[in-house]
Amino acid sequence: MPAAPTDLRRYLVALASLTLVQVVSTMVFNQASVLAPAAAAEFGVAAADIAYYVSIVYLAAMISTVGGGTITRRLGPIRFIQTGLAVAALGSFVFATGGLAMAALSAFIVGLGSGPLTIASSHILARVSPPRLANVTFSLKQSGVPVGFAICGAVLPTLALDFGWRWAAAAVGFLTIAAAIAIQPLRALYDDERVGGAARLPTLAEIFEPLQLAWRDPILRPMCFIGMLFSATQAIVVNFTVVYAVDGLKMSYVLAGALLSAATVAGAFGRIFWGALADLLRRPSAVLAGIGAIIAIAATVMSFSTPAWPTTAVYIVCTILGGTAVGWNGVFIAESASRAPPGRAAEFTGATQLFVFCGALLSPLLFRTVLAITGVYEAGYLLLAAGVATASFFLGRAALR
C-alpha cells in the first residue's frame, strides 16, 4: 500500500509530460505542411508538392524506428526522447534557412528525430499505466498529436504572414529544444531500468524478432494493415487540408488553417472518446473497425465537396473526418503494447509503427500522383475511403473471431 502514491505520481507525471512532448513533436513534424502555401512560391513549386516533403519525413521516421525498442532500453526512454527532440529541432532550423535542397534535407532530419518518440513514450506508459485504463491512457497521450496539429493550423499561418515563414519555422525549432531541456528531471523517474552493454545499435535479430512475433498474432496482423490505411488517411487530412482548402475550395489561408485546427481538435477529443470506449467495451480491435467505417463514409462525403458548399458544411465533414482519421492512434498503440510480452512494449510498438509510417510515407505520393493525373482532389479521397473500408472489414472479421 505505501507504494501506491508513488506509482500514481509516476503515472500522472508520465501522462502529462509525454502528452506535452507529443504536442511539441507534432508541431515540428507538421510545420512544413501548414507553411507550404507561404513557402511554395519561394521554392518555385506548387503547394501540393508538400507530398514529397511529407514522404521524406516518414521514410526517415521508418529508418529511425527500426530497432528503436532495443535502443530505448539501452539509452533509457527519456534520453531517447531528448535525442529525438534535439534532432527534430535541428531539422526545423534547416527548413528555416530556405531553399528546395535544404527543405529536403530538413524533412529527412525531422523524420529521424520524430521516429523514436512514440516508441520511447509507449515503453514508459506500458510500465506505469493501470491495465484497466490502458486504452484511454494511450489515447490521452496521443491526443497531443491533434492538439499539435491544431496549434500549427491556428498559429503558424498568422506568424508566417506577420514575420515570414522562416521565422515561424525557427520558432518551432526553439520550442522543441526547450521541450528537450524541460524533461531532463524525468530521467530519475523513468530511465531507471536501462540495460547495460557496449553496443548501442541493435542487431538484425533484435530488429526482426518483434516483427515476426507481431505478424504471428491473429489480431496484430490485420491491425498492421489497418494501421497503414488509417495513417495514410491521417497523413492526407493533416498535410493536405490547408492545401486543399486554399487550392480546391478557394478558402483564405487563415480560414484554411482554422479548418485544419477544427479537424484536429476533433481528433483530440476523438482519441479520448475512442480510448474510453475501447476500455469500456474491452474490444479495442472492434472499436478500430468501427472507426474505419466512419472514416470511409466521411472521406467519401469529402470527395463531393466544392467551393459552392457552405463553409459550415465543410467544417462539419472535416470535423467528423478529423475525429476518426486523427482519433484512432491511441487505441491502436495501446492494443499493440498490450499484446507484447512483459517488458517489450517498445519493440512491439516499434514493429507496428513501421506499418503506420509506411502508410503515411506512401499516401502523400499516391495522393499527389492521383491529383496530377485527374486534376482534382476528390479522386484521392475516394481511393482512401475504399482502402480503409476494405481493411476495416477484415479487422472486424478478425475481432469477431
From TrEMBL:
A Pfam family that this protein carries is MFS_1
What is this organism's lineage? Answer: Bacteria, Pseudomonadati, Pseudomonadota, Alphaproteobacteria, Hyphomicrobiales
Stored InterPro entries: MFS (IPR011701), MFS-Transporter (IPR052952), MFS_dom (IPR020846)
Does the record carry Isomerase as a key word? no
Entry protein name: MFS transporter
List keywords of the entry alphabetically.
Answer: Membrane, Transmembrane, Transmembrane helix
Ranges for domain Major facilitator superfamily (MFS) profile come to 11-401
Mark the transmembrane ranges. 50-72, 84-109, 165-183, 225-246, 252-274, 286-306, 312-334, 354-373, 379-400
